[in-house]
Design brief:
Blueprint (H helix, E strand, L loop, with lengths): L1 E6 L6 H8 L8 E8 L6 H6 L6 E5 L5 E13 L13 E6 L17 E13 L2 E8 L20 E9 L2 H16 L5 E12 L5 H8 L7 E8 L2 E7 L2 E6 L2 E12 L4 H13 L1 H18 L3 E6 L4 E4 L3 E12 L5 H8 L7 E2 L1 H11 L10 E6 L2 E6 L3 E5 L2 E10 L5 H16 L2 E2 L2
Parallel strand pairs: 1-2, 8-22
Antiparallel strand pairs: 2-7, 3-4, 3-10, 4-6, 5-6, 5-18, 6-7, 8-9, 9-17, 9-21, 10-11, 11-20, 12-13, 12-19, 13-16, 14-16, 15-16, 18-19, 20-21
Helix pairs in contact: 3-9
């Protein structure tokens, strides 16, 4: 299907932009993108948090180059099959894929499915120093403009009415001991086990207002929220890129190995140095580096890997990070990259088959989109984060997910503390948690 783009004269305000975009209709056999630059625009997260609950999304890259807030879904494609034949010229499609798309989603993940990409009906986009509003009209899709609110506020207060862990501490200790035993017996080299904290809230917050509290300009993360239906949202601030593609240029990275942040600069630096010098953390990180290198080398004409990891610092934790940059072979697309890179040993283990089987046998919940790819694809590029440091919001239930990479030297109590540190950004906002 072809794409028709209409660039309108700049508008001073959002109201003027909406007036300019109105009156358009879908064109036979084509997707219409009608866009206007807005000279005075609010923060994207504030704007989308005011909009009616239902089909909404937000995405912001780690480098601050691109952000989008989307209202309504003009078109949908299922993943992973929907990448084939996707209309892309001048468009970006947003969404995600489950950690294990072969499994039917559990009830709390039902609206998300195994994976999907959507073309937003109305977007507010920030890129290249400009803010644009764009309307997308698809044959057979919604017509006119969605309901847009220009005033109001969204609830972001979190008060706990109860909290449980899946697994609890006893179950976690048993899982870690089983993993260490399997690793020492040679069944696998590394496995990532996850825990989720289920917090029951006194009242449901707006997920985008919640994300606005989580996201901060002082720490570079991929900030995202995907709301496929009223009362359901997957949101987070991920430090980890799965991959980005700009034409044939590929960027990916290994992110594994964890320490908490220190109370002052000296303590922070000491913990980072301790992580760099730790045989256990370097072993966990090296598994990820080797796996990514093996996965992308066959897809690249050239590939460069940093000689040593560096420390990547976040709000509450710090990690080891090794970046990769390559030139893709002609014809390598997002489907090939997703198949090669997801899941990485940073969220699954190594070898992947044995680690995945262990996860299925020992995790007492369905991961859904947690630890899966979350991002966008377009005509000349794509950008996907790994959906970690994330949570699923379903009404008054907030499931906060975190994982720990286990190797032969792992200790259950230390790994539980690592999960607490990774979940702390969410839990610190919940009164009574």
């Amino acid at each position: 299907m072809k794409v028709v783009r209409q660039q309108l004269a700049p508008a001073a305000t959002l109201d003027a932009a909406l007036d300019a975009l109105s009156g358009a209709s879908a064109q036979p056999g084509a997707i219409l993108r009608r866009e206007v630059v807005v000279t005075e625009a609010p923060a994207l997260l504030d704007w989308i948090a005011r909009q009616p609950a239902g089909e909404r999304l937000y995405w912001s890259d780690r480098d601050g180059r691109f952000a989008v807030a989307g209202l309504g879904f003009a078109a949908k494609r299922t993943l992973p099959d929907g990448l084939g034949g996707l209309p892309r010229a001048g468009l970006r499609w947003f969404g995600g894929l489950a950690f294990d798309p072969s499994r039917a989603p559990s009830p709390e993940w039902a609206p998300f499915g195994a994976g999907q990409l959507v073309l937003p009906w109305l977007t507010l986009e920030r890129e290249g120093g400009q803010v644009r509003m764009a309307l997308h009209l698809v044959p057979g899709g919604p017509t006119g403009l969605p309901e847009v609110r220009t005033a109001g506020s969204a609830q972001s207060t979190l008060v706990s009415a109860g909290q449980t862990f899946e697994p609890d501490a006893g179950g976690w200790n048993g899982g870690v001991r089983a993993a260490v035993s399997a690793i020492r017996d040679g069944e696998m080299r590394k496995v990532v086990l996850s825990r989720r904290a289920r917090v029951t809230l006194v009242s449901p917050p707006d997920p985008f207002a919640l994300l606005a509290r989580l996201a901060g300009p002082q720490v570079a993360t991929f900030d995202f929220c995907f709301e496929p239906a009223p009362g359901w949202a997957f949101l987070g601030c991920s430090p980890e890129r799965l991959f980005s593609r700009q034409d044939r240029v590929l960027h990916t990275e290994a992110l594994a190995g964890t320490r908490r942040r220190g109370g002052d600069v000296a303590a922070d630096m000491a913990l980072g140095t301790e992580m760099l010098d730790s045989d256990k953390e370097r072993e966990e990180h090296d598994h990820v580096v080797q796996s990514i290198q093996s996965a992308v080398t066959p897809l690249c004409a050239e590939l460069s890997v940093a000689e040593a990891p560096r420390v990547h610092r976040l709000h509450r934790v710090q990690h080891l990070l090794t970046p990769f940059e390559g030139t893709l072979d002609a014809g390598v697309d997002e489907a090939a990259l997703l198949a090669a890179l997801h899941p990485t040993p940073a969220v699954c283990g190594q070898p992947a088959g044995a680690a995945h089987a262990f996860i299925q046998a020992h995790e007492p919940f369905h991961r859904g989109w947690y630890a899966g790819p979350v991002g966008w694809v377009g005509s000349d590029g794509a950008d996907f984060a790994v959906g970690i440091r994330s949570a699923l919001l379903r009404g008054r239930s907030l499931w906060i997910c975190a994982g720990a990479g286990l190797v032969a030297a792992s200790q259950p109590e230390a790994e539980w503390r690592e999960l607490d540190a990774k979940s702390g950004q969410f839990l610190s906002m919940v009164e009574g948690a």
